[in-house]
Amino acid sequence: MEKTVTEAINYRRSTRVYKSEPIDSQKVKQCLYQASLAPTSSNLQLWEFYHITDKTLLDQLAVACLNQNAAKTAQQLVIVVTRKDLWRQRAKANIEFLNKVYDKPNLEERWLKRKKMAIDYYQKLIPTIYTDVFGILGFIKYLVFQIVGLFRPVYRQTRLSDMRIVAHKSAALAAENFMLSMSAIGYDTCPMEGSDTLRVKQILTLPRGAEINMVIGCGIRDEDKGIYGPRFRVPFEDVYFEK
Ligand SMILES: Cc1cc2nc3c(=O)[nH]c(=O)nc-3n(C[C@H](O)[C@H](O)[C@H](O)COP(=O)(O)O)c2cc1C
Questions:
Q1: Which of 76, 96, 184, 222 could form a disulfide with 3 if both were Cys (CB 3.0 to 4.6 A apart)?
Q2: Is residue 143, in this structure, part of any structural domain at all?
Q3: If you measure from the C-alpha of residue 146 to the centroid of ligand 1, how many angstroms do you get, rounded to a whole number?
Q4: What is the pLDDT of residues 67-120, one digit of tens each?
């Protein structure tokens, strides 16, 4: 039986050594589907998930992951990738979806308004934020918004670096959805940023606009050596603030 969310959160540990027992690709794929249900900024879904089961690729990627045990002993790997460059396609997909769901005769006024607002969002606001030329336009927008921001609340994250963070935030949420889904079915994972991302991109033949968010080792924990130590967190009181 699947674990509850609380059980899955508690069971999940970064697992560095996996058993040699194979894991079911279809189950991993289902966990990746659940990853794709994570919330995402403007619902742009600027992410891709590479599910690696091929032994040759696994070996190459383990080297690119600096020969970390979590990659070397993994039965499968998942690479979460950001695709900021796909914003136009994703905005278009959202518009097509909106046109389809609101394609009903005699639509009530409030739904017509909602449809127009949402479509304007993808046709006007998203291009305003995402259009950039080598970071120059983004920086100009940033300066303009800083000035406007002196007088009223305004969205300020328009620089190329801001947009990268936006894409990586959403991708990391998907990665956590994935790891918790794996945990819920008794599979283990280890998120890794310790990798040569350029080599990972080359191995996966990813385009220039793609960025590696995380490589995730997947398998079943070795009961003795899999988890390096007890879980450590700074006291919750040090990070929790009620105001
Ligand atoms: C973004 C990110 C990158 C990480 N990179 C690595 C890594 O390269 N190698 C590794 O062994 N663990 C890596 N970790 C795992 C952390 O070390 C681990 O989450 C932390 O020590 C807490 O342990 P726990 O996950 O078992 O609770 C990473 C975790 C995150 C969230």
A1: 184
A2: yes
A3: 35
A4: 999 999 999 999 999 999 999 999 999 999 999 998 888 888 999 999 999 999
Tokens of 39: 């919330």
Task: Give distance in angstroms: CA of 33 to centre of ligand 1.
Answer: 22
Tokens of 187: 């599979």
Q: Whose CA is nearest to atom 12 of ligand 1?
A: 192
Kindly state whether residues 134 and 179 are assigned to the same domain.
Answer: no
The number of domains in the chain is 2
Residues with CB under 6 A from ligand 1: 13-14, 16, 68, 70, 190-194, 214, 231
What pLDDT digit, counting tens, does each position of 120-165 carry? 999 999 998 998 888 898 899 889 989 999 999 998 888 989 999 9
Check residues 105 and 17 and name the one with the higher pLDDT: 17
Residue at which a domain ends, from 161, 178, 194: 161
User: Which residue range(s) make up the domain with 142?
Assistant: 87-161
Question: Do both 92 and 81 map to the same domain?
Answer: no
